[in-house]
Amino acid sequence: MWTNRSSTGQSNKPCPCCYDLDAIAAADGIDARNVRGTLDQTQMVIRLLRSLQTIENAATSGCKVCKLLVNILLHFDPNSRSTTTQIVLQLPIGHGNLQILFPLDGPQNVVQVYTSPANAKLWHHISPLPEICTDRLSKESLSFIRSCLKSCLENHPLCQQRQSNSSKGPARLIYVGDSSQTTLRLVETNQLAGDPAYNALSYCWGDDISIKTTVSNMHTLTSGIALGSLPQTLVDAVLLTQELGIKFLWIDALCIIQDSHEDWEKESANMASIYANAHLTIAAASAASATQGFLQHSATTGNHQEQKDFSEIIHDDDGTQILLKARLIPQYGIHWKWTDNFEDRFPKEPWSRRGWTLQEQLLSTRLLCISSTEMQWTCWEAEVCECNSKQNKRRQFGGTPIALIDDASVIFRLWKKIVEIYSVRSLTYSSDKLPAVSGIAEVVQQKTGSRYIAGLWADNIDLDLLWRRTGPSDDRDNENNRAASFSWASIDGEIDYYCFRNGKQAYRSSTVLTLDAVPTTEQAPLGSVIDGTLSIRGPLVSATIEQISPNCWMQVKIDDTLLVLATDTVVQGLVFPRPDGELQTTACRWPRHNGSLSSRRSGRQAGPSELRDSISYEPNGRLTGTLPARGTQCWVLQLGAFAQESHQSIVWDHELLILGRSSRSPKYYERLGLTSFRGNRLDKTFGDENVHTITLV
Description:
16 helices; globular; HET; HET domain-containing protein
């Protein structure tokens, strides 16, 4: 049996299991290969891998720290008694507190261990931390916000530079006055002297919002808006803005004329400047709708019940009582981390799951995110949270804000990451797919000077085309012409630039590409589009569909090679006349207006009368209303290939676009999906004699 070293540092050897939470001692153990652990230089921590059984054995042998660890684990996971349960002890090097990660084989919890702020001394490298405030208008909460603001305004030149470079502002603001004000007013900014400081609200509307500006009520709102007439989320934003001494507030529902398409297009195209110029953006992260509010701490987040914090009184070696505590680190905002598990990788806060809020998050110079568990501050130069954890900070979009990146190749790579994260977020109106990221697109265009076509960049088009659908297909009804088939914006559901995993970058293009599109309005050139075309010259060969499922999986045969892919959408047959008058059957995307999803997913062939009713006759062809039969023609276009090292030689991963004909005009092609093929078996197939020029729509 052995005993822990005292908190004064005098003593016996440290526990070989927890190393008394001493990162230096643990690092020495790693160097001596006596410890199952690693050094994480990104977060500056030592990670010790342990089983619950090992920790319990050390506790039984007299280690007070391991006994505490067992109690904490059983508090947060009463079912973790399995001897195979694995955890990670994360010991900070320098500043920070112990964190415990568990379990390692499923959705992971991160527990932060600390002492009560009333305790001035450390206990085995566990230091005091402030409690997280439950009242966002309390003295402590306002002190946190004001401290972050003061530090940014006085010490962050990049934040000042960002705002000085953003000239355009909102057309309207809400005058909120001070805390005594209960009547607000909608004001035109061109009638105000100078450029007044304003806060901006980022929030979820929910099903609807009880008050919004329209052509008919705009004059009334300029005369006065009763604070009590606003839904709670808007009321909370007003109250917080007043407490911070800011006289104006921007809220989209009130500052954009909602039934004026012209005003909506104009202001939505100005989002980059509106959020960049805001004194502070307030993100109501925990509120799923405008009626819920966000200033009062909630006991639940969606369907996830909040776990109560752990506390235990420990007697130090000198008899001093120390209150030790532990709490779950919220997996939201700056602590969120992408995971391979489809169900676990979606952020839990409602605000983090909405489409429009992504650009509001990325474009804001200063963002105060108020979640159900804590407040988080993000600006161009700092990230601060109430829990003081460094867990996963800057993991989602890298360490440099998009507005500070000048390298075009880096920005284009970041754009792909943004598309991936954006694709899993929800939109009330699918027509908002492109407008909801138009502000981010504006920043990318300013940095690169590249033409932007329906979510793709002309100067990076070779790589931008390499998206694919992953996870379940989202078959909500939407406008068929929202974007051309070659754009990720043409479908709903998760998008993945899978080919860029594991650092793949060396790419050899096989095609020559020319993009074109027409924006819906000149006022929003980076928003929605009327139509788009892509002219491609490259290796193109005919193929046949060997097998297809109603769940969007397809097998294509080219020569004697089978290719498997997840199609972008449900696919059906298209019959159209060839130039010689003969009918030809090919595949095309299933237009959203054509037939119910249940009949598509049934996998059965329709009867004669049912088929006759389901067929949609197009100008130059007709849709069959059923999945394509085996042997149906499609086409394979070689876009390019990635070089990969394998056994001291180079092999090529070929990126292949699977095409059908367009149901709107069969002389054009449309994208059905993307797949990859490794090796040289198809090199002759894609020879120079098969190079053609085609147009995708």
